Amino acid sequence: MLRAIGSKKDLELLPFYDLISDLLEHETVQSLKQFRHHVQTTRFQHSLNVAYYNYIFCSRFGWDARAAARAGMLHDLFFYNRKEYVRKSGEAFHSKRHPQMACSEASRLFTLSTREKDIILKHMWPMTPTRLPRYKESMVIVLTDKYCAMLEVVIPLFRKLFRRCSSASK
User: Fold this and answer.
1) Between the N and C ends of the chain, which has fewer C-beta atoms within 10 Å?
2) Does a structural domain hold residue 4?
């Protein structure tokens, strides 16, 4: 069963899945499962979370939910451990650089619309102030990316705290 954090729905049973199934099945996207992201999750799961919530939000407002979902799945398509990269390179600007890397890799593997490219490139705004979001969907990913990151860090911490509290009360 494929799920997004904070949701109990099986994503494979939703129209959302049909929009990104070709991406999910691609071996390069699958390789994102090798990389830790936001402490307790993988970069694949994080991207799936962002794709799903982008889709939900844009669908409700009648915006381009397809582009939002596909770009969400590809927004962190880079293949190195970001913490090691910063430590070894001394470059503290991973947050500003990785959207370009992800867009370049995604464009190499898939045919992207102009909107999808903008969504991927702008997902770290305002940390990338020279790249203002051009589309509504590009602003949505700015918010959903941070929302999902927060869930990915906070939910495991609350689960751990709950387990400690429940075992202490026994």
Assistant:
1) C
2) no
Residue of 99, 101, 105 lying closest to 131 (CA atoms)? 99
151: containing domain: 11-168
Establish if 148 belongs to a structural domain: yes
Structure tokens at 50: 């962002």
Peptide bond just before 126 cis, omega within 30 deg = yes
Task: List the pLDDT tens digit at each of the 170 positions of the chain.
Answer: 999 998 999 999 999 999 999 999 999 999 999 988 766 889 999 999 999 999 999 999 999 999 999 999 999 998 776 666 666 666 556 677 889 999 999 999 999 999 999 999 999 998 876 778 999 999 999 999 999 999 998 876 766 666 777 666 66
Q: How many domains does the chain have?
A: 1
